[in-house]
Specification:
Elements: E1 3-8, H1 16-24, E2 29-34, H2 38-48, E3 51-54, H3 59-65, E4 68-69, H4 71-76, E5 81-85, E6 88-92, H5 95-104, E7 112-116, H6 120-131, E8 135-139, H7 143-153, E9 156-157, E10 170-173, E11 189-192, E12 206-208, H8 210-226, H9 232-237
Parallel strand pairs: 1-2, 1-3, 4-6, 7-8, 7-10, 8-9, 10-11, 11-12
Antiparallel strand pairs: 3-5, 5-6
Length: 240
């Protein structure tokens, strides 16, 4: 039996095992591998799993560990899915799909996106927003890191303390906890990555919870793992 897992810290309480169970009716095994040391978790993957999902804080580490990169991962500089292939370990980034599909299912269009956070999820969110044709502004606690990523992605950036000057129609929040000095954006659609302890729930003219992001990236990623289309209807029922 093929074996898959999620690595990260923390991963306890993740919905990924339930989604994977629904996707394939229990035909494949899916485990949670929690640990603060990336190398230890990566070695468990190499020793015992066919593929893994990667969550915080390991997406940038995984980018450096794989043998080859899918285009989505190359653009993001981060990997959230790694799978063994005959030519080595392939790194992908299905967070880009998760963001884009979560936004497309609203039927809304967007022109100005504010992406808060510059980790792996923030990078994927920025790439997805750029692919949707948005003008993107990055913000993060560390201005130097924000500016560096903005130069790589060829987009704008702004210190958190100055965000009140913006009027984005889309806000993608990827920071795992609350951020001081963050203004509210009542006219924006808000998509938040963190579904376990959300910070912006209920804010904006439309709030998209992180479960939608998780769901859509899983739909995109599970077929990469198995070569088989997942049961999308069964996955969707997890959130009904």
């Amino acid at each position: 039996m093929k074996r898959f897992a999620l690595i990260g810290n923390p991963v306890e309480g993740s919905l990924s095992p339930r989604l994977f169970e629904a996707a394939y009716g229990g035909r494949y095994r899916y485990d949670l591998v929690e640990g603060a040391d990336f190398d230890a978790s990566w070695n468990r993957f190499l020793a015992g799993y066919d593929g893994i999902n990667i969550t915080a804080p390991f997406k940038l580490d995984a980018f450096r560990a794989v043998d080859t990169l899918a285009e989505s991962a190359r653009l993001c500089g981060a990997v959230n899915l790694a799978v063994k292939t005959p030519s080595g370990i392939l790194g992908c980034n299905t967070d880009v799909d998760g963001v884009a599909l979560s936004l497309r299912e609203t039927g809304a269009s967007f022109s100005d996106a504010l992406v808060i956070g510059c980790g792996g999820a923030g990078r994927a969110a920025a790439v997805a927003a750029l692919q949707l044709g948005c003008r993107v502004t990055l913000a993060n606690r560390t201005p130097a890191k924000t500016e560096a990523l903005a130069q790589v992605l060829e987009c704008g950036w702004m210190p958190v303390e100055e965000l009140e000057a913006l009027s984005p129609d889309l806000v993608i929040y990827t920071v795992p906890g609350p951020m001081e000095a963050l203004p509210s954006f009542p006219e924006a659609v808000i998509l938040e990555a963190n579904y376990r302890t959300p910070v912006l729930s209920g804010q904006g003219r439309l709030y998209i919870p992180g479960q939608r992001w998780l769901l859509w990236q899983a739909v995109a990623g599970y077929s990469i793992f198995t070569g088989e289309a997942p049961d999308r209807d069964a996955m969707f029922r997890i959130f009904c």
